[in-house]
Amino acid sequence: MKIFNRIREFLNKTIRPVAGADDERLLEWLGISGTPKKVLGEVTYFTCLKMLSETLGKMPVKFYQQTERGIEEAAPNAAYNLLKTRPNPQMTPTTFWGTVENNRNHYGNAYVWIQREFKRKKYGGDMEIKHL
C-alpha cells in the first residue's frame, strides 16, 4: 500500500505542481522576483479591486417599477437615459459605475452627486437632472 501512496504523491506533484506567491520560480517568470511581500500584497489588493469594479461597470442597467401587476420594466426617463448613455461629460457609463464600485469596495461606501438645474415656469418649475 505504501508504494501506491508514493506513486500517487509523485503524480500529484508532477501533474499538479503548486505555485504560490512564495514560489521564486513563479515570481522570476512574472518578472517580479526580489519584490518585497508588502508591495506584492498591495498589487494583489488593487488588482482585485480593479477586476471587481470593472466587472460590475460592464453590467447592463435595468430600470423597473412596482405596479399593481407586480414589478415591470419602466418607461425610460431622463435619469435612466443618463445612467445608460452618458452620466457626465467626462465618463462613460462603464467608467462611472466602475468608479462607484471601486470607491464602495475601497472606502466602504460610495456617493453619486446629482447635479440638477431648476427650470422656472410661470407658476413653479421643474428640476432637471443635468449630470451625475
Note down, in words, how this protein is organized.
The structure is a single chain. Helices cover 48% and strands 16% of the residues. It has helices at residues 2-15, 24-30, 37-57, 78-84, 93-107, and strands at 64-67, 70-73, 115-120, 125-131. The chain has a two-stranded antiparallel sheet with strand order 1-2. A two-stranded antiparallel sheet has the order 3-4.
Mean pLDDT: 84
Low-pLDDT runs of 5+ residues are none
Strand content: 15-25%
Give helix and strand order, one letter per element, not per position.
Answer: HHHEEHHEE
Rg? 26 Å
Distance between the termini: 68 Å
Largest sheet: 2 strands, antiparallel
Total of helices? 5
* Oligomeric state, counting identical vs distinct chains: single chain
Helical content (DSSP H or I, runs of 4+) = 40-55%
What would the principal axes of the Cα set say about the shape? elongated
Overall number of strands: 4
Q: Within the largest sheet, what's the order of strands?
A: 1-2
Structural class: alpha+beta
